[in-house]
Amino acid sequence: MHLTILVTGATGTVGCEVVKQLSMIDGDLRVRAGVHSIIKGENLKRLPGVEIVEMDFEDQESLHAAFTHVDKLFLVTPMAKDQVQMAKTLVDEAKKAGVKHIVKLSVMGADAEPGLQLGRWHRETEKYIEDSGIAYTFLRPASFMQNFVNYCGDTIKQEGKIYMPTGDGKVGYIDARDIAAVGVEALTGEGHEGKVYELTGPDAISHGEAARILSEVTGKQVEYVDVSGDAARKSMNEQGTPDWMADAMMELYDAHKAGYSEEVLDSVKAITDRKPHSFRQFAQDYKECFK
């Protein structure tokens, strides 16, 4: 009997990796990639056993179609002002469709009190899933290594600089490919129901150390510029970042700067039986994004 897994946010940093890794599994597995736009999901069509489905949170019919005959859900919601309500809508649909297991992408420290706003949003969704009665697994990763591409890639390419307000604070950055590997194991393996997995890479590094590694790997000089919080907020405002998002990001950066994110765990190796990618390996694999 086949297993159908729906991945929401399938064009995102982690969702895309989950779809890719699921598509490589032999067996009667059907992967349904939920996307906001069919056009953006074109690249996923080339993967074996992957079906693309458009999902509109304001269109009940599209959600119903996406969840039809789905057995398991990998839940990713965008960073949006109404992200909690989006997630609750998806959980409600999952319950109506008889989904048996939800693996949710959360964030490290989601259950901390009082914690960060980013964590509080994720924890509200986690509680809603717990109350739904559906079996769950929560993945709580540290910050992604791929954010160096997403948020710093342009300035590294154009200026050879990383601008961040994090001082010498270290973070246990994790590669999105390792988060996806844990997610795939939780979706297809046994004994992961009711578990909460906090995930990091193998080392905690600062932006200054990241700049040094990127310099060595790419062969171009990369410098870390420790900007003030006011300068960082001004830059976000100039780029059109809404206040609620800027507030949440500045709170996160302050936590990094204070050293609250430097914990390193061996959970990826324990769950997947392989070592997580180091930052140097990430830089090597993605070096064309910085050159």
From TrEMBL:
Q: Which InterPro entries does this one have?
A: Ergot_Alk_Oxidoreductase, NAD(P)-bd_dom_sf, NmrA-like
Domain spans labelled NmrA-like: 4-269
Q: Which SUPFAM superfamilies match?
A: NAD(P)-binding Rossmann-fold domains (SSF51735)
Pfam families annotated for this entry? NmrA (PF05368)
**Gene3D superfamilies in the record, alphabetically?**
NAD(P)-binding Rossmann-like Domain, UDP-galactose 4-epimerase, domain 1
The record, for CDD domains, names:
TMR_SDR_a (cd05269)
Name of the protein this chain belongs to: SDR family oxidoreductase
Q: Which organism is it from?
A: Pontibacter aydingkolensis
- Highest lineage ranks of the organism? Bacteria, Pseudomonadati, Bacteroidota, Cytophagia, Cytophagales
